């Protein structure tokens, strides 16, 4: 939807809307034609599969020592981004496979920063999430980390390997990290109730939401978006509604597919091959039996020894970074760089994660964008009044400082000339927009860190601010 668009997306006004679960998918740039990458469906798929393969890294074991692919962004922000996504959107895969018209797709999450992934439909409709009053139920205690009050999510009574979390959004149990982040929010709500005797459920919920929204605007966005982009949205240091150009959800919020299927998939490039949870536990993303029998995969009762040491994931205390002054196991882990490369485990997703081909997450993202009719990155840049990247500057691969000779997208296929898939373009743009980021660890290390640039950054900020101002 452009700033001049006078009407809501097709069907929005006539669709019955719940105050808790409502919304539609729509487009920011409705007038732009979809990008195509071949003369037939087969050619489109083959070319995008080639690009997806080029965007996948070589095999790499889980590690937590110093790594040249690390950015200046602490590792937790990868999973905070996933948590925020689950708060905003839910679109069943089966619906997307059957129907590629975004206007006909339903967002089964309210497109607002309201924590419906935490609160669900409320205690009257989902009483099994609550303790009979205003507090959330919690699961069994877990240890190994720095938090003596750490607890698993509340679960059903099935055998351990099939226990499902009783939470507002089951997706927040899909891996060990986002599961424990969900648990932190449950306990934060309970803490507000405990520290403010007599406070109503609604007021406690309101406080939790305000803290959450503050973190999004003043901590999360500055971590992932170049400062030059954020500054464009401010007047005298404050975010300004009048600076929004392309996203004005006047008739009710909607979720743009340029955001959900492209710009906000930045987190996939930030994932590490594995993470150290605490002193004793280092896990890969996925198990690889028989060599590596365990992974971060969720949807089961939490191993009681897998409590997270949050100092390894976020810069809340002083941690060793480079291993020169202390045991590497105590270091702060950092997210991988925003670039056009995904770690190898994401190129071979296990069948427990995806049951349909292809197993490559990069290829799945590219095919999804094509089937949803996303325009090319260059067309979006032109529409936004931004000089697009040249083909020679759309690099594919790991954007580490020691690897300056990345190949351009034209080495994959000439079909991508002036015609880069929007998701790939936004990641390539981040490579060109690096900032020195200071890590508050021993010695205050600074890391040259790619961040979302003028196209990807503007899409993300406009959607975030548009939803905030419309709340």
Structural notes for this entry:
This protein is of the alpha+beta class and 471 residues long. The chain has a single domain (25-469), classed as Orthogonal Bundle (Myeloperoxidase, subunit C), CATH 1.10.640. Helices cover 28% and strands 8% of the residues. The protein contains twelve helices and twelve strands. It has a two-stranded parallel ribbon. α1 (41-54) packs antiparallel against α9 and α2 packs across α5 (176-195). The two termini are 18 Å apart.
List the helices and strands and how they pair.
Blueprint: E1 25-26, H1 41-54, E2 70-74, H2 76-88, H3 93-98, H4 116-119, H5 176-195, H6 201-224, H7 227-231, E3 234-235, E4 238-239, E5 255-256, H8 257-260, E6 274-276, E7 282-284, E8 334-336, H9 361-371, H10 377-383, E9 395-396, E10 407-408, H11 422-431, E11 434-439, E12 445-450, H12 456-469
Parallel strand pairs: 1-5
Antiparallel strand pairs: 2-8, 3-4, 6-7, 9-10, 11-12
Helix pairs in contact: 1-9, 2-5, 5-6, 6-12
Keywords for this structure?
Myeloperoxidase, subunit C, two-stranded parallel ribbon, globular, disordered N terminus, two-stranded antiparallel ribbon, 8% strand, alpha+beta, 471 residues, 12 helices
Query: Which CATH architecture would you pick?
Result: Orthogonal Bundle
Task: Tell me the name of the CATH class.
Answer: Mainly Alpha
Report how far apart the termini are. Answer: 18 Å
Number of strands: 12
Number of DSSP helical runs = 12
Q: List the helices and strands in order.
A: EHEHHHHHHEEEHEEEHHEEHEEH
